[in-house]
Amino acid sequence: MSKAKDLRERRKRRIRGKIGKRLGERPRLSVFRSEKHIYAQVIDDREGRTLAAACSLEKDMRVKLATGANVGAASEVGKLIAERALAAGVKDVIFDRGEYKYHGRIKALAEAAREIGLSF
Questions:
Q1: CA-based Rg of the chain, rounded to a whole angstrom?
Q2: How much is the average pLDDT of 23-29?
């Protein structure tokens, strides 16, 4: 394994370990970032089901955005996931950024979700 991959795996385990201690309290806002798109899900781990989901691949997002791989797209996905989570009755979540550092697209998604009213 490369050094970068080892560091990502260590970061992922560290973050998931901290989240695992508090998972029974609130649903988890999980973020996945690919090279071309960004995805977000609000997951209830007690029941094992997804409460809300949003991504830059959705039809209305593709029309609105030039690409799904920039900060603007992440911000739009953050707003959309927050609206859907609030509609599902979820106000408080635990933010699961996975192996990604909190900057760029991940930070834009989180801040947009906070603006709409999701708290974490």
A1: 14
A2: 86
57 C-beta neighbours (distance < 10 Å), count: 14
Rounded to whole angstroms, the Cα distance separating 72 from 108 reads: 8
Distance CA 76, CA 39 (A): 11
Domain with residue 109: its CATH number is 3.30.420.100
Token pair recorded at residue 113? 């979700």
Q: Which residues span the domain enclosing 20?
A: 3-116
* Average pLDDT taken over every residue of the chain: 92
**Contact call for residues 27 and 90 (beta carbons, < 8 A):** yes
Count of structural domains within the chain: 1
Alpha carbons 63 and 42: distance in angstroms, whole number: 24
Q: Is 23 exposed, middle or buried (0-12, 13-18, 19+ CB in 10 A)?
A: middle
| Most confident of the ranges 1-5, 98-102, 111-115 | 111-115
